Amino acid sequence: MAKNHVDSRLSGQAGRFLLQARDQHLVVDASAGRGGQAQAWQAAELLLGALQTCSHAVIDNEARQQGLNDYALRIEADCENDEEQPGHYRYITLDYHFQGVSQEQAQDLVARFQAVCPIYGSLSRGAPVSVRVFSTR
Q: Which domain holds residue 49?
């Protein structure tokens, strides 16, 4: 079973944070509304990017296994905060734009992504999240 781990730290600059996964580093900003400069990737963009990355990885692997080597795929992703329910998104939308495959093949490829991507599955089914808090003085 694959386990993923990411560490995050304050950068010393208001609204800017440093993420590290394995030996990879990423600078992330809070939105301007939360005191960030909104110059680097923001949390919602990372979420959408994770869905798109998993989509591309699953779909490309499945397409190549089916011998569909000459196709193109662009995915547009959007989300919007829910003003009536703070702390929730009103929606998350993924739009798949395929070239070089039939509509049926495209739908089958996306269905495969939906069946196996843990990010999509967690978001679409509301996976439980546990939170632990540790403090030292």
A: 42-137
